[in-house]
Each structure stands twice: as C-alpha cells, then as structure tokens.
Amino acid sequence: MNSNQEVIRRLSRYRNVMRKMKGLGLVKVFSDNLADAVGVSPSLVRKDFSMFNLTGNKRGGYRIDDLVTKLNTLLGKDKKQKIIIIGCGKLGQALMNHNGFPRVGIRVVAGFDSDPAVLNAEAPIPILHVKDIKEFIAENEIRVAALTVPEPAAQGMIDTLRKTCVKGVINFAPLTLKSSDDFLIHNMNIEQEIENLFYNIHFAESNPVENLVA
Amino acid sequence: MNSNQEVIRRLSRYRNVMRKMKGLGLVKVFSDNLADAVGVSPSLVRKDFSMFNLTGNKRGGYRIDDLVTKLNTLLGKDKKQKIIIIGCGKLGQALMNHNGFPRVGIRVVAGFDSDPAVLNAEAPIPILHVKDIKEFIAENEIRVAALTVPEPAAQGMIDTLRKTCVKGVINFAPLTLKSSDDFLIHNMNIEQEIENLFYNIHFAESNPVENLVA
DNA sequence: AATATATTGTGAAACAAGTAACTTTATAAT
DNA sequence: ATTATAAAGTTACTTGTTTCACAATATATT
Check: CATH 3.40.190.10 for A81-192? Predict the structure, then answer.
C-alpha cells in the first residue's frame, strides 16, 4: 500500500513524543499539539494517522495510551528488535554500548570484526570474528545489521550479508550503498550531512549559481 | 533560489564518485555513468547539473577535473571545514577520531564535555569544559557542531548554541530537534532508522493497516 | 434538551520532485 | 565537406506529498 519512508519516520516521532507526554501525565492529545511537538502541520498529523486507520475523537482528540499501543504494533515495537554491529572500531563500539538502544527496545546481540585484538567472545555483548558471521546470523535469525567497517570493506560485507537472512542494513561507511526491495540499506552519511550544513550556511541565502560563476 | 536538500546531497555524491573515477585515471564521464554509480536516473544527473550551471559537452560528456573543481567551490570544499564535538562519550570520541573526516576536508578542532574525567586540554584535539564553549566558538569562528550529548541535555545545548555564531548542528541525540532558517539542525536519529528498517522488513510487503486492525 | 464550539477526517487543490521525451550540438566517420 | 550519431540540455508530463478548506460530529455549555 504505502512505501513512503517519511510517514513511518513521522509515526516513530509521534510515538516518541506521546510517550513523553504520557510520562507527564497527559491522557489525550490534539493534532495541533503533536504538530507543534514534532514540527509538522496539524493536517499532516491527521492525514498520517488517517492513512493507517489511527482514529481519534472529534472534539476529543486522540487518546495517548491507545495510540501509542497501536503505533507500537504498527512499528513492530511489541517485539524485541535484535541487531548486530559489523566493524568494532571506535564507532562500532560506541554503538555497541549505546544506551539509547535498550530504551527503545533495540538489543545489540553481538559485534563482529576481523582484527583479533578486539575480539572478546566472553563479553556481555560478544565481539566475534567475521568469519563466523553467517553462522551467527542464521542461528540467531538476525534481520538487521549496523555496518561500521572502513569504506573499502563496506561493499564486500554487503555482498556477504545478501547471502544471509539479514534484510536491512544501516550503513555508516561514507559511501552510498544501493538499496533494493528485498535488501534495504539506510545510509547514515555523516560527512555528507556536514558538507550539506556548510553548503546551506555559506550559500543558502545567496544565489548558489552566482557563487559558482563569480 | 533552491532549498532542496536532496540535490545538494546528490552533488556531494557525484563529486565523491568522480574523485574515485579520477583516481582510476578517467578524464571524462557521461550522465549515464554517474547515474549508474550514484543510483539515480541519467536525466536527474543532467537536471541537477543544469540547475547549478554545471555544463558538459554535447557528445563529449563532462570533464571530471573541471566538474570536481566546480563542485568543490559550490559545496565550499575549497575551504577547511572546522567542526566541534559536543559531548565526549563513546560516540563523541569516536567522531573525534573518525578518519573519514580529514579525507574530505573536515577538521575536528575540539571536543567539549561537562565531565572533568574526560577533559584533556593538551590532546591533539583538546577536550575542553563546556563552560568555555561560547568563548571557544567565538574565537575560532566555529559554524558547525556535532551534538553527541545525552538526550536530556540536547535541547539546552541547542539554546546555548543559538546565542553563538554556530549556524548548523548535526544532532545524534535520539530526538528530532527543530531546524529554522537561521539555525540548521540535521538529525541523525539512529534508533529511528533502525525502527524504520524493522518496519519495512516486517510489514512492507503486507498491508500495514491490515496488520494493525487484525 | 438544545445550541455552540472545537477538533477530527477527508476530498480537492497546490506544490514539489523526478522521469521521459524531445531538441540541440559537438564529435566522429565517411 | 557532409552526414550520422551520441550525448547534453530542456521542456512537458507524471507522480507523489503536503496543505487547504470544509463537512461531520463528539463534547461542552446554557
């Protein structure tokens, strides 16, 4: 029906905001409130909900409890979401210990690396050798991996993962890996985002073509 | 003129691909080649270039050297791009030592934290106390910061940064901070991307509304 | 109980982005 | 020199997304 990524991201954000509201003791919420909190228009909030049959009450707004529950089901948050980290350099290890994950029901079950120096099979979250990755993925039914290997190793690892039951990868290597219908790749290109910021800061107000020609 | 973020990200990608092509000894490139390499359509490549007056030769394609130079100017890559890292936990320290940055002309000039245990003013990239951040930003004319503080501290730090000459922030805290025209925030919400992957893997092929209602 | 009002839900309109197809022109071949 | 052709540059079309505006209706007020 709907393969729009942005809607789903917004649903996550509505959910997160409502969980905080709930923490504050709020019971119901209006499209207006959510719009302010998330930074979108009220009509978009209503449209998004309407697309997924998430209903409220005319004049009464949306019941937070109800909506969070429905969003949890919709987003698959009622199940534990297991991931592995491939590449245990600084960034990989930061992700392994990232305490934002447990809070939203994401569990890092293992790390993988090719450097014997960082391996540690006995750690709470074991760091294993990449040679064993296929077996581990199969045994533990891993569906999502975070890729934090050096750029030159990224494409090769994707080729390996494609032969496993992994179906989605979040890529931190500074190149844009191509997604497909049956194997999703979300690229987190930090360098690109920073370049983008600099571009917008320097040139956004003036005419960029002028800058180039002048 | 144009505030479409995606075009700019694509320009970065064209540039990165062309730099690699240049490394292979290639001299000219066609919209077709770039399209394949970046994963977009050839007409989009031509349109993107055309929007920024980046011209090639009919039948001769684009001269890589020429185009990379023009893209460097356009993207502001002819100047060193200085950033600071706010929050020197695991993720912040990983970014401080991230070797993808120097390769694309981004330089991390300092880290900031409130925990005395991690401070180190003498390190090659000093880690300073956040109380000194405003002064540092002013003296060093910092325009872009990476925010890797815990979620509860994020909004407060944004409020502080708004009073400085920082104009852009890349935010890693798991909440979506709101951008404005004069203060840009790009959110790198890792949790959200992972949730999104799980959603797409589990539900994309079936009808999500069914999943919810059933 | 009747009326007023606030808020949802939705179809139409407006907008933005990307694609496809056409026109132009530089290069290559004859 | 002439002709053919490949690729850029451009215009029009298509598609998808967001906003707008209003009808429907649940709650609150009198």
Answer: no
